[in-house]
Amino acid sequence: MTQIGGLVYLIALLLIKKSVNQRRLKGICVFVFLYLLVTFLIVPFVAPIFGRERIKETEFVQAHSFFFKLANRNYVKSELNNAIEEIAKGFEKQNAGIKIVYLDANFPFIDQFPLLPHLSHNDGKKIDISLIYENPNGKLTNKKPSTSGYGVYEDPKPSEYDQVSVCQSKGNWQYDFPKYLTFGRINKDIKFSERGTRNLINLIVKQPEIGKLFIEPHLKTRLNLTNNKIRFHGCRAVRHDDHIHLQLK
Predict the structure, then answer these.
(1) Residue 177 shares a structural domain with residue 135
(2) How far apart are the first and last CA of the chain?
(3) 155: DSSP letter
(4) What residue numbers bound the domain in which 82 lies?
(5) 110 exposure class (CB count in 10 Å sphere: 0-12, 13-18, 19+)
(6) 3-state helix, strand and coil shares in percent for the chain, rounded to the nearest 5
(7) CA angle 126, 149, 226 (to 5 degrees)
(8) Which H or E run contains 84?
(9) pLDDT in tens, 60-89
């Protein structure tokens, strides 16, 4: 869940003497204090030593929820940070008031340290961002359909290629698993915006630093996306019709 939580918890236990009354309660209080201190005042200054930095939140870029920042899942290499900022500026310029909303990125330290449940978010080069949605009147919105940011899919239509069924038929049970991780569906009046998502993806692939973008094959076809940076992620991953994955070269 987080990269530093276990270490901070051990330190908190060491700071509380066994003889202290209500040791568990005091341990929790010390842990919370130390965790917040380390997360927001220490980690951001240490992470650059490992080649990563906290995602810059601006009027154009924001986390889907505070959880991603609290859990230190919002660190990337500076090149990706700059690319995200440029993409967001370009997107907002074409769609006033609409932001890039990011989900899981990477932990602040150590290459190859897994950011579960992701297979590859372990080197500062990857980030997930939300699809774009619109209100019933067709106007783009910053609202998203799930509490976690994951698990509410834009399913293939009957006439579209169904990669989900193909992967599941091969025994890849996890491919559809994020539907259990929504933590509740919200904003049920909004719908997937083909126009907004196509616009966003085209801006992403124009960035020279971006090497790959993953999205479900039926959405690639539906949105008429042809850039060779847009790839299929493979059946060992999870489906990508609830978010976009992008990464540096």
Answers:
(1) yes
(2) 26
(3) P
(4) 52-248
(5) exposed
(6) 40, 15, 45
(7) 55
(8) helix 78-94
(9) 999 999 999 999 999 999 999 999 999 999
Is 80 in contact with 124 (CB distance < 8 Å)?
yes
Cα-based angle 15, 21, 22 (whole degrees, multiple of 5): 85
Tell me: do 164 and 208 sit in the same domain.
yes
This prediction's pTM: 0.92
Phi-psi sector, 22: left (phi>0), alpha (psi -120 to 50), beta:
left
Give the tokens for residue 14: 């060491």
d(CA 55, CA 53) in angstroms, rounded, equals 6
86-131 pLDDT per residue, tens: 999 999 999 999 999 999 999 999 999 989 899 899 999 999 999 9
Please report where in the chains the tokens 């601006």 appear, as a residue.
Answer: 58
The helix/strand/coil state of 130 is strand
Q: How far apart are CA 7 and CA 69, in angstroms?
A: 18
